[in-house]
Amino acid sequence: MFVDMPLAQLREYLPERSEPADFDAFWERTLAETRTHDLAPEFTPVASPLTTAEVFDVTFAGFGGHPIKGWLLLPRQAAGPVPCVVEYQGYGGGRGLPIDWLLWPSLGYAVLAMDSRGQGAGGWRRGDTADPYPGSGPTTPGVMTSGIHDPDAYYYRRLYTDAVRAVEAARAHPQVGAVAVGGASQGGAIALAVSALVPGLACAFLDVPFMCHIRHATEITGEYPYAEIAAYCRAFKEKVEPVFQTLAYFDGVNFAARAATPALFSVGLQDGITPPSTVFAAYNHYAGEKDIKVYPYNGHEGGESAHAMERIAKAGKALG
């Protein structure tokens, strides 16, 4: 069933942003601290039965200098540098296996699939990266409330920073040219943050993005992962306002207002996990060139293969 406002209202929905005064300074400081660690990208060739792509096991230094894993797939026998799409994972997922990432190499592009630290044991796509950050405090199961008592300690500070470094790692490879970013759900949230934090990206694929208009999301859906925040607030009633003060540093709506990267969004009007009004809040605030594909009878799966074709068309224009 439709779970939110009518589409005409969604297209006009432009809620006021709740933004910390030091939002930009926070992210400038975060990235500056991270860049004191050598990126040290490593691309180790992996034996593979794949005949259309070369596979590399990637390691680079993310937040705190922590080692972050990924896969880089290059189309075989590519002549010179090729465009690359850096892909981020949905909630609970990891980088999986190389065969999960064949779409872009099949089109002649490279892909760097970044692992999500501390995720990838949920049963749907495995991960290989630990999150060694100490002192996160009490949490609801999942990562949504890990370190939520303090923006500096919050899990998504580390994850979004890793994602910026993944772009830097891709750009460090001699066979990579222009770079785009993309992901769905949590991956869309990460790509949205990166679209604002990294200049010079060719485009961003932002599918059913999570972590947008977050407080509103917790008020209109009881679905996970937003329900993790609600559960934490039920347990720590005196911390409700500090929780949302922390989350404002990570809200996609605030990143959207700073983004200059050309972006393709997608939304399902029957999505109870990332309700349409949260996606449109980010889309309508998005400062860069943008388009959105609306799938009225889809939920959190979005446009599925039909939307993959939309991504391919956008890549053809933005990446060549």
Explain this structure to me?
Strands 1-2-3-5-4-6-7-8-9 form a nine-stranded mixed sheet, with helices on both faces. The chain has one domain (7-318): Alpha/Beta hydrolase fold, catalytic domain (Rossmann fold), CATH 3.40.50. It is globular. The chain has eleven helices and nine strands. The mean pLDDT is 95. The protein has 320 residues and is an alpha/beta fold. Helix 4 crosses helix 5 (186-197). Keywords: Hydrolase. GO terms for molecular function: cephalosporin-C deacetylase activity. The active site is at 185 (nucleophile), 271 (charge relay system), 300 (charge relay system). InterPro entries: AB_hydrolase_fold, AXE1_dom, CE7. Pfam families: AXE1.
- CATH fold name, please? Rossmann fold
How many E-type strands?
A: 9
- Give the proportion of residues in helices: 25-40%
First and last CA, distance: 39 Å
State Rg: 19 Å
Can you tell me the overall shape? globular
Number of helices: 11
How are the strands of the biggest sheet laid out side by side?
Answer: 1-2-3-5-4-6-7-8-9
Instruction: Give a short account of the largest sheet.
Output: 9 strands, mixed
> Number of domains in the coordinates?
1
CATH class: Alpha Beta
Question: Could you give the order of the helices and strands?
Answer: HHEEEEHEHEHEHHHHEHEH
Q: CATH superfamily name?
A: Alpha/Beta hydrolase fold, catalytic domain
Point out poorly predicted stretches. none
Name the CATH architecture.
3-Layer(aba) Sandwich
Mean pLDDT value:
95
Beta fraction:
15-25%
Active site: 185 (nucleophile), 271 (charge relay system), 300 (charge relay system)
GO biological process, one term: polysaccharide metabolic process
Binding site for substrate: 91
Domain Acetyl xylan esterase: 2-306
